[in-house]
Amino acid sequence: MKANCWMGKKKVEVRDVPDPKILNSRDAIVRVTSTAICGSDLHLYNGFIPTMERGDVLGHEFMGEVVETGSGVKNLKVGDRVVVPFPIACGACNMCQRDLFSLCENSNPNAWIAEKLMGHSPAGLFGYSHMLGGYAGGQAEYARVPFADVGPIKVNGLPDEQVLFLSDIFPTGYMGAEMCNIQPGDVIAVWGCGPVGQFAIASAKLLGAERVIAIDRFPYRLRMAAEKAGATETINYEQESVLERLLELTGGRGPDACIDAVGMEAHGHAAIYAYDRAKQALMLESDRPIALREAIMACRPGGVLSVIGVYGGFIDKFPMGPLMNKSLTVRTGQTHVQRYLRPLLDRIERGEIDPSFVITHRLRLEEASEGFEMFLHKRDNCEKVVLTA
Ligand code: NAD
Ligand code: ZN
Ligand code: ZN
């Protein structure tokens, strides 16, 4: 089959690789009909996630048709259309029983590597480094889905484009908003208007936020935030001071909750950006937490910091004093996607949201490399690329 493979820093290539096979009784094989490129893939593309190997099949946002099931998969049959969540979860371990699916204790065969770096290992993820399981991803014609009796959700009737993002970015944005514990009248600020930020904004509105302030530097992304996702105000951080503007917009108090939908490769100005870039280049710091620091400084006392942007390792100049003295609550995590599939599919079916609003580019799987470049460099006002087989 054809699959999009990581071939080193800034290089992906669609190559011929062996077809996936059923390895365990709870596996299913899915023929991928739609897949997407995620901001998380850019961290791999840019070489910031360790333990990638040449030839690894990328992709963790995908859906398709079940073409084969192992003997232990009773709830799916050949021909079913399914969306597959990006964390792989067994459904039975202590973490899964607590609905913390992205922390499944049984799905990462290489847990020891992650344990060295983080103390414990999160779940295995599709197409996301050997440290997180070394699973082949879904930017391919076919994918092997472990624990297929737990993860995938059947979808009927709705087109791929409306349900594909249940695999990751819609639940991720939703969890980001849910972690804010939104109360009537709340003002939520969202750093980053990439696809994840857009769903955080839309979800904050769905969950009852009175105002949602979107922050980025690309006018077309800010426009989408306002016109499609429902942001009530936007801030272009290249044109004005985010901290000053947020105070001004909130009567001097600051947002009730701040969502970081940017992550480890934040962009910025001034000395601190040069500092983080230099330390990152020398591998003395793994991540550039520019939006994170700003969110901590901006948040009102007693507020919530919700971090859905991905971080890989260790950061410098973390404002622990402000975090502590302002009694902020920090909530974060890889998304426990399985928890959100049913309720969010219901919202799509009820017409409360049409997640396809983020799609700007539709390419063929063979054009994956072009898609990565376009998404990375924001060419042609690229927001989200969907690949079809
Ligand atoms: P993206 O790269 O398209 O979006 C990032 C946006 O942040 C860009 O629009 C960029 O201009 C903006 N940005 C950069 N620096 C900024 C700053 N200092 N202030 C404000 N905005 C800034 O990617 P995406 O697909 O939207 O993903 C966003 C993040 O979410 C990534 O880190 C990704 O890995 C992460 N993610 C997390 C999960 C999870 O499970 N928690 C799931 C999916 C994606
Ligand atoms: Zn993703
Ligand atoms: Zn589990």
Question: Care to describe what's here?
Answer:
By secondary structure, the protein is an alpha/beta fold. It folds into two domains: 2-168 and 335-388, Quinone Oxidoreductase, Chain A, domain 1 (Alpha-Beta Complex); 170-332, 3-Layer(aba) Sandwich (Rossmann fold). It contains 13 helices and 18 strands. The strands form four sheets. Strands 3, 5, 6, 9, 10, 17 and 18 form a seven-stranded mixed beta sheet that branches. Helix 5 (169-178) packs across helix 6 (195-206), helix 5 (169-178) crosses helix 12 (337-349) and helix 6 (195-206) packs parallel to helix 7. The longest helix is centred in the last third of the chain and has 13 residues, at 337-349. The structure holds nicotinamide-adenine-dinucleotide and zinc ion (ZN) (2 copies). Residues 38-40, 42-43, 168-169, 172, 191-197, 215-218, 221, 237, 261-263, 266-268, 290-291, 308-310, 334-335 line the site of nicotinamide-adenine-dinucleotide.
Task: Give the topology, please.
Elements: E1 2-6, E2 12-16, E3 28-36, H1 39-45, E4 56-57, E5 62-69, E6 81-84, E7 87-88, H2 94-97, H3 111-118, E8 124-125, E9 142-145, E10 153-154, H4 160-163, H5 169-178, E11 187-191, H6 195-206, E12 211-216, H7 219-229, E13 233-236, H8 242-249, E14 257-260, H9 270-281, H10 290-298, E15 304-307, H11 320-325, E16 329-332, H12 337-349, E17 361-364, H13 368-377, E18 385-388
Parallel strand pairs: 11-12, 11-14, 12-13, 14-15, 15-16, 17-18
Antiparallel strand pairs: 1-2, 1-4, 3-5, 3-9, 3-18, 5-6, 6-10, 7-8
Helix pairs in contact: 5-6, 5-12, 6-7
Bound molecules: nicotinamide-adenine-dinucleotide and zinc ion (2 copies).
Nicotinamide-adenine-dinucleotide (NAD) binds next to helix 1, helix 5, helix 6, strand 12 and helix 10.
